[in-house]
Amino acid sequence: MRGAEVSGVIAVWRFLRSGLRSFLFVGLLVAAVVDCWMRRPKVGAEGAVWIHGWCRRIVRVLGFECSVEGAVPLGGAVVSNHLSYLDILLYSSVQPFVMVAKTEVRGWPLLGWLTARAGTVYVKRGGGPKTYPAVNAAMAEAYRSGLPVLFFPEGTTTEGAEVLPFRRGLFHSVLDGGVPLRVAALRYSLDPYAVNGGATVGEDVCWWGDMEFASHMFRFLGLRGLRAKIRFGEEIVERTDRFVLSTTARGVVAEMYEDLGLEVGASVGWEHDSELVEAL
Description:
This protein has helices spanning 3-39, 45-61, 86-94, 111-117, 132-143, 171-176, 201-204, 213-221, 242-262, 275-279, and strands at residues 64-69, 77-80, 98-102, 121-123, 149-151, 181-190, 226-235. The protein is α/β, with parallel strands linked by helices. The protein has a single domain (3-270), classed as Glycerol-3-phosphate (1)-acyltransferase (3-Layer(aba) Sandwich), CATH 3.40.1130. The protein has a seven-stranded mixed sheet with strand order 1-7-6-2-5-3-4, sandwiched between helices. Helix 2 crosses helix 3. The longest helix has 37 residues, at 3-39. It is globular, with a radius of gyration of 19 Å.
């Protein structure tokens, strides 16, 4: 076959894979909503534990191979780099977390309602001093849940070229509450032997800038050979003030993220639950 014909066949198969996975993804979201309505888990820790099981199912349908390194935190605060809307799904599939997300997530169809049930703390981008007391109070309540509270101090998603400087606002709640702080790093990759028609991690997995959510999600669902690596680090003990705490945490996360880039070909994947998912 000629190059143009091969590209056309690849595009068709990717489109069909996107369509099938989209159907399964939406079906799982609807099933989760129905399950939540029937079980009625309490908003907060109970909701986060409940949604953990559904995130595991969704991650498998998305076709990810995910490996986790380091001790998974059981409490306190955790900070990570931020690459995509997928980050929340992946972290929640590993361990129940109380998440911190931008306020826009609350309005997303189905996903917004489900994240609210899990006790997610919603933060307004560029929030001024008037928003700090409310956010700090919500964070303090999240810490009392007994679950680890995960937030992304970069304040936005990126294409993965570097870890941006950490915004210091949410570190107030860590210091004021005497909450232990752990770090984590997340990195995505595509199997170099998988045929994806020139797709890249920066454009087809990471979600950033002015990318449109629905079209990006559809393209992403057509990919094969998706890999993710999560590494949990140690507690940050340099915490003189929020400037020191945020800067130190950012430096450790950036180093971990760079190290993951060197190991990106060594991911160990979760086994899929069925032959149907394996074939997607």
